[in-house]
Design brief:
This protein has 357 residues and is α/β, with parallel strands linked by helices. 30% of the residues lie in helices and 15% in strands. Strand 1 (7-11), helix 1 (17-24) and strand 2 (30-34) form a beta-alpha-beta unit.
Length: 357
Amino acid sequence: MIADGSVEVLIIAPISDAALHTVQAVDAAVRVVDGRQMFEAEYRRSWPPATVRRYLPAKAGPREALPQAERDRLLATAEVALGTFPFPKDLRSRAARLRWFHQLPAGASNLRHGDLWGSDVTVTTSRGLGNTLPMAEYVLAAILHFVKGFHRAAPDRTRHEFEHRAYRPRLLRGKTVCVVGLGGIGRDVARLCEAVGMRVVGTRRRVAAGEPAPEGVSRLESSDRLHALLGESDFVAVCCQLTAETEGLINRAAIAAMKPGAVVINVARGEIIDETALQEGLANGQIGGAALDVYRGEFEGDPDRGLWDDPRVLITPHVSGETDVNLHRGMDLFCDNLRRYLNGQPLENVVGWGRGY
């Protein structure tokens, strides 16, 4: 707290005016500093062009003209900061008084790109509170895309000739989906898939003895039992956090363990899948198709051309969480945590540097 007993909260996420006022209304001790759109000039210089194109406005706004010294001053006095992706990569070194940073996105792996990772600052994310239902709908749509043979339509249209026998539509009911990571996204995937008659199995990082499976899940295993589940699954939905443990999790061994012809769907992070192994699996028929809303190196550039050119691979630009109805509850968590912070209580969704989320 500063001399007058207030807590300075710096807002650098592009939230609405209404959301800004909600933060201010949390407590009289909160002093909100509006830093929205003031750091974008730095992001344009320090982040790859692919990130800039994806996450920043095409045209620079008037607040980007803020002098560097003024941005430094805002960071130097902040005790709490609310941000998103991208963010200042040198945030920790410039924010000497910073004690807590909340990142609105659910994934913590983005923070690896800056000096907050592994620092003494408490960091929280919106894990489990993002637009998980739209992401689950994306998974179900991708499953239907392959089950009904829709991936055959584009090549037929290009040739202006139908290859009727190539479609081979199947009944969805009774098929098995393995949900890799039964967190917020994975639980919604399980509920939707179970509702249309699918059998759902899945993993969590750790499963306690006697722990009940989430709603809609018929079999729950810890991550070390993943390969056993892959062998009985028609579809594999990757929904877990990217950590040191999960990077390259879907590798040659995992793909070899899959049921022949299985379809892989990734709505998590591209680095969880070994894309070379995935292409090999597609080439030899072990993998029947893939739907990738994320891909390796998406913040730096375009997808691997071998995947992008394969008609059995559906690639989208990280849009599974976008929707016309905002269900994101990250601001609710931030305000609840801000009350806890003011009262000296433990915060929720704190990132554990050791586990990686």
